[in-house]
From TrEMBL:
GO terms for biological process: SNARE complex assembly. InterPro entries: UV_resistance/autophagy_Atg14. GO terms for molecular function: SNARE binding. This is Autophagy-related protein 14.
């Protein structure tokens, strides 16, 4: 039998399977939910009343387990427990890492704080040092200005003193060279054959011309060249000049003047026979002798070059009388026309521009030309002929 869907009473087909009492409410569609709620409340009230009447003991709710699913449930519980343990372990690791990170962060904050404190201290120290450096810079600039002014003043005075000393040295050199010229008695004498020509007298001997050596006697050449060697040594010493060749004065083992390169073979300028005999009989010895004469001539040319006397040809270098005359005019100037001041060249030309070999060849060639009849004039000038006609060169000026 069909019961009512609301109150469980016998239903009627004509009432759409509801009882007569409930069917009357169907027309009230909005009251159906309320009817259902009231029904449920009344049912719940009945259940509570029955429980209170029958048994008042509390029984907690227990979940019923289906025996068919008991094994799978235990497997799920074991996996769940294992997963829970792994999660707890991970949680503990993360918790410890978080703790360490917090500790490191705290240390970093402490280090940063300390760094800021150190930076502040360094900033204060740098500021103090900057102030000190500025003070030191000002003191240094002040001392530098004072030192500069002192150096300038002292340098000026020293420069003036050096110029004065240099002028004094030059004046002393000129005075010594003048006294040296007077000591050696440098004079000039007119030739008997030609009144327009002069011979230079060094002491009491005529100074020979190296291009006409056969015209002079043996004694005249030896005495004049020996005195010329002494003159070159003293003049170089007074003028502080380094001669291009070494002049070896007479000593105990060697009684004659010798010429040489520094530390090389030495050549004597003393004639043991006449120039003609030596050239004809001993040409090799004559070449060595002329080499020594060329060295002496270049030494005299070095002294002339230091006094700003320009001589550039072997012909001029061989004319010893002319070179010595020019040097004498520098040593003993004309006081009526020029002041008594030294006149050295600041950068004198070196006499080595005239080659030793070229000068030697020139003298040898000229000597052989004279010996072989290159000149018809054979006026031998000796010491005795020169003594009687001496004339002071200073009296002629």
């Amino acid at each position: 039998m069909v019961s009512c869907g609301i109150c469980s009473q016998p239903a009627s087909f004509s009432k759409k399977f509801f009882c007569a009492s409930c069917a009357s409410f169907l027309v009230l569609d909005d009251r159906i939910s309320l009817i259902n709620s009231c029904t449920e409340v009344s049912s719940l009230a009945r259940d509570i009343d029955s429980l209170l009447i029958n048994d008042t003991k509390y029984k907690p709710y227990k979940k019923t387990t289906n025996p068919a699913t008991k094994g799978s449930s235990s497997t799920i519980d074991t996996s769940h427990i294992r997963n829970v343990g792994v999660l707890k372990t991970k949680a503990n690791c993360l918790r410890s890492q978080n703790q360490r990170a917090r500790h490191e962060a705290q240390q970093l904050r402490s280090a940063v704080k300390k760094g800021w404190e150190d930076a502040e201290r360094l900033k204060d120290k740098n500021e103090t040092r900057r102030i000190r450096l500025k003070q030191m810079r000002e003191e240094l600039e002040k001392k530098h200005r004072l030192q500069k002014s002192t150096i300038i003043s002292q340098t000026t005075s020293k420069r003036e003193a050096c110029i004065h000393v240099k002028n004094t040295i030059q004046q002393l050199q000129l005075r010594f060279c003048r006294e040296l010229a007077y000591l050696f008695g440098i004079r000039r004498r007119k030739r008997k054959t030609d009144e327009t020509s002069y011979d230079i007298i060094l002491g009491f001997s005529v100074l020979p011309d190296l291009s006409n050596l056969p015209h002079y006697s043996q004694s005249t050449i030896n005495i004049a060249l020996e005195r010329l060697a002494y003159f070159c040594c003293l003049a170089a010493y007074y003028l502080d000049i380094r001669l291009p060749y070494e002049i070896l004065l007479p000593q105990r083992n060697h009684c004659y003047v010798r010429m040489a390169h520094f530390g090389s073979t030495k050549h004597s300028i003393f004639l043991t026979s006449s120039v003609t005999q030596l050239a004809q009989e001993q040409p090799k010895e004559f070449e060595l002798y002329v080499e020594g004469l060329s060295m002496l001539a270049l030494c005299l040319l070095e002294i002339a070059s230091s006094r700003d006397i320009q001589l550039e040809s072997v012909t001029e270098a061989a004319q010893l009388s002319r070179v010595l005359s020019l040097i004498y005019k520098q040593f003993v100037p004309d006081t009526h026309h020029q002041p008594e001041t030294p006149s050295p060249s600041p950068n004198p030309p070196s006499p080595t521009a005239i080659n030793l070999e070229s000068l030697q060849d020139y003298i040898i060639n000229q000597s052989y030309l004279e010996i072989n009849g290159g000149s018809n004039e054979w006026n031998f000038i000796d010491k005795e002929a020169a003594i009687g006609s001496l004339t002071d060169i200073s009296s002629k000026q």
